[in-house]
Amino acid sequence: MSDGIETTWRPRSAWAGIAPVGRHGRPGGEPGLTLTLREEFGLATLIAVKGRTDALRQVMDARFGWSLPDPGGANLTGERGLVWSGPDQWLALFEERREMAGLGQALEGLAAVTDQSDARAIVRVSGPDARAFLAKGLAIDLHPRAFQPGQVAVTALAHMGAQVWQRDAVPTYDLAVARSSTGSVWSWMSHAAAEFGYDVRNAAP
Amino acid sequence: MRIRCPHCGPRDNGEFSYLGDAAPIRPDGMEAPPAAMHDYVYLRDNPAGPHRELWYHGAGCRSWLVVDRDTRTHEITGVSSARDVALSRRTGEVA
Ligand SMILES: [Zn+2]
Fold first, then answer.
1. How far is the CA of A82 from the centre of ligand 1 (A)?
2. Residue A130 shares a structural domain with residue A148
3. Ligand 1 centroid – CA A188 distance (Å)
4. What CATH number corresponds to the domain at position B53?
5. Nearest chain A CA: its distance from B88 CA (Å)
6. Residue A37 bridge partners (DSSP)
7. 3-state class (DSSP) for residue A123
8. Looking at the 3D structure of chain B, how many domains does it have?
């Protein structure tokens, strides 16, 4: 019945039609921050089976060389690793989606694994004004004495659910939000970032 | 008002929703007399002072918490995971 019918479905960035690439906001001078639209990453939620957290820890270490972060922690090497997201819950991050193959089987009986690659959108926020920018929307303390590279918070950005982890002291943060909320998130971000001047880029393929 | 979530650290109370008194324990529905069930479902004390209550960290780690709060001052003297409270209660019954 479907013979000869060509599908019109195409992969589409979570930020397509929402976040325009280029220089925006305050004109002149160096931009205060850069917003990099992440794409093609692999992302899965892990929820440990009750009483199997230690076994999960061993398998993640043996298979990936990754250690399960403590509450509030993110153990990342480059674009890969684990981010805490609740009691006995983590995000597993991969640079490319195909690296996730076999994850569910490897963790069978140890954790519930759910592919979230298409469910979350991630934007990287980096630059000298990145902290001041995020502080306008996050009701958590981002001062280095309270929040540093390797730390994560599950919280809300301008009342929208968000998970944010710090990558380095530039500072650079990754911000993950529900893909369905990117329009509203970008509306807030574009207004909040305007005073600093900002660059919007696509992540290098 | 801020609540110090045992998993997430101190957070604005806007991240939480309030359920109510943490003390009532559901009676066995098959065994309990109607009066006990009525008491469990409908009747609550309304103390001016220390209160143990349930809060849900919906905009954070999505955990239920047991919070000791003074209803007159909003001073919070203790926060624990509701799961831990329930588990220790169960252990207490077994012991
Ligand atoms: Zn929490």
1. 18
2. yes
3. 24
4. 3.30.2270.10
5. 16
6. A123, A202
7. strand
8. 1
Domain final position from A60, A84, A115:
A115
Helix H or strand E segment including A182: helix A182-193
pTM as predicted:
0.92
A149-204: per-residue pLDDT in tens? 999 999 999 999 999 999 999 999 999 999 999 999 999 999 999 999 999 999 97
> Which of A141, A154, A159 minimises the CB distance to B60?
A154
- Closest approach of A204 to chain B, Cα-based (Å): 31
Q: Which chain B residues are closer than 8 Å to A85 by Cβ?
A: 61
- Is the Cβ pair B59, A87 closer than 8 Å? no
Terminal Cα-to-Cα distance of chain B (whole angstroms): 38
- CB atoms inside a 10 Å sphere around CB A185: 25
Structural domain range at position A124: 22-39+118-202
**A108 and A60 in one domain?**
yes
Nearest alpha-carbon partner for A12 in A34, A37, A35: A37
ipTM over 0.90: no
Find the angle CA(B61)-CA(A190)-CA(A186) to the nearest 5 degrees: 45
Q: Do A86 and B59 touch (CB under 8 A)?
A: no
Which tens digit of pLDDT belongs to each residue from A63-116? 999 999 999 999 999 999 999 999 999 999 999 999 999 999 999 999 999 999
Question: Considering only CB atoms, which chain B residues are within 8 Å of A83?
Answer: none
